[in-house]
Amino acid sequence: MLLLVLILVVLGGGIIFFTMRSSSGNALVAINARLGRYGLAGGGSSGGVQIVNQRGRSQNAVSRAVERLVDRGGLTAPIADRLSKADLRMTPAEFVSIAAGAFVVAALLGLIIKGSLGMLGLGVLGFVVPWIYLSRRIKRRQKKFIEQLADMAQMMGNSMRAGFSIMQSMELVATEGPQPAGYELDRVVTEVKLGLPLDAAMDHLIKRQPSEDLELMVVAINVQRQIGGNLSEILAIIAQTIRERVRFQRDLRTLTAQARYSSWIITALPLAVAVIINFMDQPYESFLYTTTLGWIMLGVAVCMLGLGFFFLHRIANIEV
Length: 320
Hints:
Largest sheet: none
Number of strands: 0
Order of helices and strands: HHHHHHHHHHHHHH
Shape: elongated
Strand content: under 5%
Structural class: mainly alpha
Helix content: over 70%
């Protein structure tokens, strides 16, 4: 037991040291990440030429090993894409290291509190929490962007009515607009200034912020650039449409809030009761995870809970 605790402590300390060292002193990785956000280096999802020097990176052997491991697993591109959507300034290797460190710390805590069973349960939970945080951060940022999209379209339309061009109106929104809408348009303007066509830059924006309203706005801009037309009036109509859709979705989420929260509560209640009973009277519950019949019962219960949560969640989430 003591040896296992020491191994976990050493492993967790090494992961934390690697993450702090990697995120603090590597200028080349920072340059690659910044250029990769605009499709000009290997740090982005669009590929490109990786910037290196002859002396090698300033990261240590552990850092390079983690990067190779993440790259061989095919995780670099999808994790980098999700980190970009969440606006987290770190490399995929650093994020994986943080998840691994959380796993080690949580497993050590579970081992101290509840033995091997606690180590397994809390370890899995510690590894999953960073990914859940990443997903929730992406959803919150995309939701905030969609709520700001109507004002962004209105501001662009007003500036074009005042005589600005499309790029000048985008620069105005990027400078004066709220975040994250201003930041996303600033990336579009920067990509165009670096030589990328406006169509490609707008496609990158749609990939970062997938939305039907944004696609409608991009189609209107592309059509106006090809055949002409009064884009300011079109953007005003699109802005009004987006506002109505956002208002309707808010009302819909309010009406379905009880059903959505019920799905989470009904699913979490049996798990919470099982954990509480295990802490209060472990021999009473040990039948479930010490016998074959108990494992079968646990498997059936987990499958039924998963199916129930799936159907309740699908019923409560109405697509508009």
